[in-house]
Amino acid sequence: MKSSRLLKFLKPYWRWAVLAPLLMVLEVAMDLMQPWMIERIVDQGIAQHDMTVVVRTGLLMVGLALIGAVGGVGCTVFSMLASQGFGTDLRGALFRKVQSLSFGNLDRLETGQLITRLTNDVTQVQEVVSMMLRIMVRAPLLLIGSAGLAILTSPRLALILVVLGPLVLAVLAWVINKSYLLFGEVQRRLDGLNTVMQENLAGVRVVKAFVRARHEKQRFGAANDSLMVQMVHAARTVAVAMPAVTLALNLGVVGAIWFGGLQVTYGGMKVGELIAFVNYLMRTLMSLMFVSMLTMRVARAEASAERIQEVLDSEPEVQDRPEALKTFAPQGRVAFENVTFSYEGDGRDPVLKGISFVAEPGQTVAVLGATGSGKSSLIHLIPRFYDVSGGRITIDGIDVRDVDEAALRRNVGIALQESVLFTGTIRDNIRYGRPDATDEEVIAAARAAQAHDFISQFPDGYDTVLGQRGVNLSGGQKQRIAIARALLTRPAVLILDDSTSSVDVETETRIQDALEGFMQDHTSLVIAQRISTVLNADKILVLDDGRIAAEGTHGELLASSPIYREIYESQLGDGVTTDA
Q: pLDDT-based confidence at 579, cuts 50/70/90?
């Protein structure tokens, strides 16, 4: 079972995990003594008119009940401490694992799925751990103890348990086996629901702009209804267990009273013994009922545990080699040597084919091409978000696969077209990559990114708190903060992936001028859609269908490359600048 593999997260809390069942044993022991006490009151006290036995036994029952209550409360407290610690550690391990995964892993494990596994799936397993330390301990102990005492009380009537027990267990086994598969599908449909919700919230502006709220409601409704149908199907299957156990309980009580009454009538059994046996019988079958109630939770938790374990067992596709360099301080010479790349990793359907070029320190290399030509894929290979399928990429002559990931990425700054900002101050967002940066360094990076002026206009300046994803900033402002964040790390290689697409041409020009001084002697790679962005680049690469179709300066390409000339004329040929 997958859930058993997760019990290692309970190890730090083993003292509480041991104390909780022991205290539950105490409670069960006190409970099991109660029917025997009732038998004594009836047969030795009431039947023989001895009130001393009745009073003493009654007081003893109260004392045992109080001891049992202490055991029950203690079990609940310690089981909660253990299960909550287990859930916290498991959730933390999952989050750390997600952080360690490569882009390729995350492409397959979608955001909606990961959110479900980090929240709902962990909660399901955590609750079952709590139940294991309480009810899952109580029910078997009560079952064994009650059944044993029922046999001791009346071996003849105990034959009722021999008949009913296997029938109930067979029903429960069928329900558990069936529920496991059904609740696995429940969690997958919950993934789908979370994915729809996550996409809708992330794209709410697009939804409203295109008046697609009704369509999104229908999408969510379809996913929600699908989850409901599957949940009802699973619950309906599990619901078979409760009536089956209840029927067995009632049949057992009727049988015990019928046959036990006959024995009492003919003197083969005392009334107190019959009452005690019925109590033990009810406790035995009630413990089976508890098991049936837990069947759904256990089956669902097992399905959740399998999904959690899938993430924990995932190995990052991009991994450091044993001899990887931990210290790396390059000048920034980037070389692609016959690089081929496929997202599948097996070389099939490559998005980049035979890419070779060199970017010298101090140079600005621009990459231009139509949508889908492989521009973003190319720059994602430099910091090893993905590994090449063929060929190699070097920085200062060292294969990037021979450098520790953290050391490599500390020397590669990147600003993406979709600027991701975090809840917090502008200052904290800019120094996200260098938390120890001084205020002067933060301001210098912001000035270079042309962000200082608009930041200073806020009442709180750099201490202005940003909403989720920087919702209180414009697209251009977010992009400039993202550029400042990349610049602050003083990277040997700076990558700007169409990161000025939301900035006006005049501001873009000022950013480019500032970068020349800020990134002097370091390498810049710029992905662009606007031709105006690349005019002054030292080298321009024109990508077409994953290959370098042309390479050179603006003047050289204008004379030699039909593709570049077509892009230039479509944007600047008539004197009008437009976005490609």
A: very low
With bands split at pLDDT 50, 70 and 90, how would you rate the model's confidence at 395? very high
Q: Which CATH topology does 323-411+521-574 take?
A: Rossmann fold (3.40.50)
- What is the C-alpha to C-alpha distance for residues 379 and 245, in angstroms, rounded to an integer? 63
Whether 217 and 176 have beta carbons less than 8 Å apart is answered as no
Tens of pLDDT, residues 213-261: 788 888 888 988 988 988 888 888 777 777 777 787 788 778 888 888 8
Q: What is the pLDDT of residues 512-564, one digit of tens each?
A: 777 777 777 788 898 887 787 788 888 999 998 889 998 998 888 888 888 88
CA distance 292 to 172: 6
For the record, the structure tokens of 568 come out as: 């230039």
**pLDDT tier at 1 (50, 70, 90 boundaries)?**
low
DSSP lists the bridge partners of residue 124 as: none
Residue 66, C-beta contacts closer than 8 angstroms, at least 6 positions apart: none
Domain with CATH 3.40.50.300 in the chain: 323-411+521-574
Residues contacting residue 442 through CB under 8 Å, at least 6 positions apart? 427, 430, 431, 462, 484, 488
C-alpha of 407 from chain center: 27
Give CA–CA dist 580/567, Å, rounded.
8
Dmax over CA atoms of the chain, in Å, equals: 119
271-313 vs 122-133: helix axis angle to the nearest 10?
Answer: 150
Task: Show Cβ contacts of residue 212 under 8 Å, excluding neighbours closer than 6 positions.
Answer: 206
Element (H or E) spanning 316, and its range?
Answer: none
Question: What is the dihedral angle through the alpha carbons of 554, 560, 562, 568, rounded to the nearest 10 degrees?
Answer: 20
Interatomic CA distance for residues 239 and 231, integer angstroms: 12
**Cα separation of 262 and 157, whole Å?**
11
Spatial CA neighbour of 176 closest among 309, 168, 134:
168
Please name every residue paired with 369 in a beta bridge, in sequence order, or none if there are none: 543
pLDDT in tens, 346-369: 667 889 999 999 999 988 899 988
Could you tell me where in the chain the CATH 1.20.1560.10 domains are found? 2-313
Distance CA 563, CA 580 (A): 13
Give the number of other CB atoms < 10 A from CB of residue 346: 9
Local structure of residue 102 (DSSP, 8 states): -
Residue 539, strand partner residues: 365
**What does the pLDDT read at residue 296?**
65
* Homologous superfamily (CATH) for 2-313: ABC transporter type 1, transmembrane domain (1.20.1560.10)
